[in-house]
Design brief:
Blueprint lengths: L6 E4 L5 H12 L3 E6 L7 E2 L2 E5 L5 H15 L4 E4 L14 H29 L2 E6 L12 H21 L4 E7 L7 H4 L11 H16 L4 H13 L6 E3 L2 H12 L2 H11 L5
Parallel strand pairs: 1-2, 1-5, 2-4, 5-6, 6-7, 7-8
Antiparallel strand pairs: 3-4
Helix pairs in contact: 1-7, 2-3, 3-4
InterPro entries: NAD(P)-bd_dom_sf, SDR_fam
Pfam families: adh_short (PF00106)
Family: Belongs to the short-chain dehydrogenases/reductases (SDR) family.
Length: about 270
């Protein structure tokens, strides 16, 4: 038996999946630190210490990890949860808007991972859990850039896992489908709207809102994180909800043309 309490760090822990994951890890016996861009010094919620961090800022990430190691001495689990969404036709977003989304969803993961890896390497142990999405392995019309960030996280995570596995570290993906969070309300819209896309974009917003309303609670995703952290023989990809597991299988078993037709119907796109 180990004689220390393992330490977990969860980014974007002020609400939704991040907050529920932090609570679930605490219940599983971890000392948990969460991050929020607006956290004040010494803040805590339900026994979870909240620390300020902006994952799009190198200095902020470095300061966070330094502070955490000073407080806890180690980092056993990093959950890269902080991120954002964008509902827009690909053509409706400027390159600057695309860069901002990638900076948060992809480079934020890379910044946090690069900051934590030296600590885990020195420990010869650790798990990095990246919150992906089903749109990391299926198309998502009118969120092409968001899907692109999640595809990037998928490729990065799976490749990195092979690089660090012999160092006692695993990098694992949690892939939720629609979850009952405020993602749709917090999603960014296009920065250069085009009327030609209005009808179908608005239909897509409706699909997202309905799917999130009837989706799984974030506690389900949090449970998948705890399972991945504790699994002695973890899987690289972990579809986290019933819908995610169904899509994971369908994407592999259903012929491409049939999958394409079904997706367009579900997303209320013209045949």
């Amino acid at each position: 038996m180990s004689n220390y309490t393992p330490v977990a760090l969860v980014t974007g822990a002020s609400g939704g999946i991040g907050f529920e994951t932090a609570k679930a890890l605490r219940s599983a016996g971890y000392t948990v630190f969460g991050t929020s861009r607006r956290a004040s010094e010494g803040a805590s919620i339900d026994g979870i210490s909240l620390l300020p961090c902006d994952v799009t800022d190198d200095a902020s990430v470095a300061a966070l990890v330094t502070q955490l190691v000073e407080k806890a001495g180690r980092i056993d689990v990093l959950v890269n949860n902080a991120g954002g969404a964008l509902i827009a036709a690909a053509e409706e977003s400027s390159v600057d808007q695309a860069k901002a989304l990638f900076d948060l969803n992809v480079f934020g993961v890379i910044r946090m991972t690069n900051a934590v890896l030296p600590i885990m390497r020195s420990q010869r142990s650790g798990r990095i859990i990246n919150i992906g999405s089903v749109v990391g392995f299926v198309p998502s019309p009118f969120s092409a850039l968001y899907a692109a960030t999640k595809h990037a996280v998928e490729g990065y995570s799976q490749s990195l896992d092979h690089e660090v596995r012999n160092l006692g570290i695993r990098v694992l993906l949690i892939e939720p489908a629609f979850t009952r969070t405020s993602l749709d309300h917090n999603a960014t819209g296009p920065d250069r709207k085009l009327a030609v896309y209005d009808e179908q974009r608005n239909a897509m917003v409706g699909v997202w809102q309905q799917a999130i309303k009837t989706g799984d609670p974030p506690q389900v995703v949090a449970g998948a994180v705890v399972a991945a952290v504790s699994d002695k023989k973890p899987k690289l990809q972990n579809p986290a909800t019933k819908m995610a597991r169904q899509l994971f299988l369908l994407r592999r078993l259903v012929p491409a043309n049939a999958f394409d037709k079904s997706l367009r119907k579900h997303m209320k796109l013209r045949a």
